[in-house]
Design goal:
mainly alpha, 24 helices, 73% helix, globular
Length: 506
């Protein structure tokens, strides 16, 4: 390519020399057999895609081809003359850097065009927006290939967002939304300006954000059996998008401090249990269990399996050895590690079923905890295990000199981690933490498996309604769009926060 550009430069400038097609073909097409084969295959795919799109949409495809040829020509001439504009420089660097890039860019543009054209035709051109099922059927029947039946979504918008929340209490939801908007708007300005770092306004906003969960609880649950804030049963009143947001928000808020504690606990250097005390307890206990459990078990055992089960007390000295060998008596690190590895070793759906089925077994007689609270706790505890590993990765990236500098300044452990270590660790793992939050937001769809009707669960109910029987794609597309918007907002804020904090910069 370099030779081609040089020769073209001399040709366009009128200098001595001429362009050599033989040399161009030798460098770009025949330099190796695999490159020639790849270009032939890519050219064939490009030809088939272009031919197919010309048959389906000749006018639009023709315009795309004309624009593509013009851009390729302008980019090549600009490169030959070394007179790039911002547009041609970007094109030459990202799209038209080689013959492969030129062909692939054309194929991608045409395929995207085909996808967008097909979606617009299904979602708008051949679609029906009537909430009357009979009218919707008539509108769709006039098309050979009917489009979307958005009436099912429009007719069930309230079910999708709040489901069974009492309609006369909707003002609570609007008040909560208004409260968060009134806090969010000034927060985007105040928290991004260094001048407000120690201002009274910033401290006030921080306090208001801290009390927001309590305000949300009062509005969403209530405080009494009568009055405007009548108490609601979350198992009945919460559903749809409302339950999804509550589960995700609670999981994010509750899992973060728990994840920080688990990360610090796994890295703890506490030597709490001396070795002599461990063996003083383990040895007598093992001997006692061998006499009372193992020997009678071996006598009555039938088969190798039962014999091995009877030897379970021998696991105690083995566990004690591993505990002293790898943890040096550090109970905090051991418990943190066990929690993280056990929770990470099972899927979220298992944790949810355990919260519904096994948790009531450990409650005192007569005590009952609502399924919603158990599910929310399960989501938070599950997310904390993954979040702890992300934070631990950030802690491990901090140079040892930072710890030594904090110790040299005479800072205590709490102030050292609060002022020096944790800000740097969290800054380094912002992408991982936000990715975990996005994954948690999507994982809330699994609460449907334990009887709670969240956003996706309502879509399943819509397709089972008599009026909209069989309408499945439209609710799923709508839900996917809502999920995408929210996740995109979180990702955008993450990138903005990374730029402001200089993540990845040296």
């Amino acid at each position: 390519m370099a030779t081609h550009i040089q020769n073209l430069q001399t040709f366009l400038r009128g200098d001595t020399g001429r362009f050599s097609w033989r040399q161009f073909v030798r460098e770009q097409l025949l330099s190796s057999w695999w490159k020639t084969l790849w270009l032939l295959l890519l050219a064939y795919v490009t030809f088939r895609v272009v031919a197919g799109q010309l048959a389906a949409a000749p006018v639009t495809t023709g315009i795309i081809l004309l624009a593509w040829f013009v851009l390729v020509g302008i980019t090549a001439i600009s490169g030959a003359l070394n007179r790039h504009t911002s547009l041609t420089f970007w094109l030459s660097k990202n799209l038209f850097s080689s013959i492969t890039g030129v062909l692939i860019s054309l194929v991608i543009v045409l395929l995207l065009l085909a996808g967008v054209r097909g979606f617009i035709g299904w979602a708008f051109v051949r679609a029906s927006f009537s909430t009357d099922p009979e009218v919707a059927k008539q509108e769709l029947s006039q098309w050979e290939n009917p489009g979307a039946n958005w009436g099912a979504v429009i007719d069930n918008l309230r079910n999708l967002f709040v489901f069974r929340f009492p309609q006369e209490q909707d003002w609570r939801l609007w008040l909560l939304v208004l409260w968060n908007v009134l806090l969010f708007v000034p927060s985007t300005f105040v928290y991004s300006r260094e001048v407000y770092r120690r201002s009274r306004l910033r401290r006030t906003l921080t306090i208001l954000w801290l009390i927001t969960p309590f305000i949300a609880y009062v509005l969403l649950v209530g405080v009494g059996s009568s009055g405007p804030l009548v108490r609601l049963n979350p198992d009945i009143a919460w559903g749809g998008f409302l339950l999804t947001v509550i589960a995700a928000a609670f999981g994010i808020i509750a899992s973060f401090p728990l994840g920080v504690m688990l990360a610090l606990g796994r890295r703890s250097q506490i030597r709490g249990v001396p070795g002599w005390l461990v063996w003083l307890v383990v040895v007598p206990l093992t001997l006692y269990l061998l006499v009372t459990q193992t020997i009678p078990g071996l006598r009555s055992a039938v088969g190798l399996g039962q014999q091995l089960i009877a030897l379970w007390p021998l696991l105690l000295p083995i566990s004690a050895f591993l505990f002293m060998r790898y943890y040096r008596g550090n109970v905090v690190a051991l418990l943190s590690t066990l929690y993280i590895e056990v929770v990470r070793g099972v899927p979220l759906i298992t944790v949810l079923f355990m919260s519904i089925i096994l948790f009531p077994i450990f409650l005192p007689p007569g005590m009952e905890v609502l399924s919603t609270w158990r599910v929310l706790a399960a989501v938070a505890f599950f997310a904390a295990a993954y979040l702890a590993e992300n934070i631990r990765g950030g802690l491990q990236s901090i140079p040892k000199g930072q710890y030594e500098a904090a110790d040299a300044l005479g800072l205590g452990t709490a102030r050292k981690y609060r002022l020096i270590i944790m800000p740097q660790a969290l800054r380094a793992v912002i992408p991982a933490i936000v990715g975990q939050f996005i994954g948690l937001f999507k994982d809330t769809t699994l609460v449907e498996t334990v009887g709670l009707i969240e956003f996706l669960g309502v879509a399943n109910l819509i397709s089972a309604q008599t009026d909209w029987l069989g309408v499945r794609r439209e609710p799923y597309v709508f839900i996917a769009l809502v999920y995408f918007i929210i996740n995109f907002m979180m990702a955008t804020y993450s990138r903005r926060l990374e730029r402001r904090l200089g993540v990845g910069e040296r």
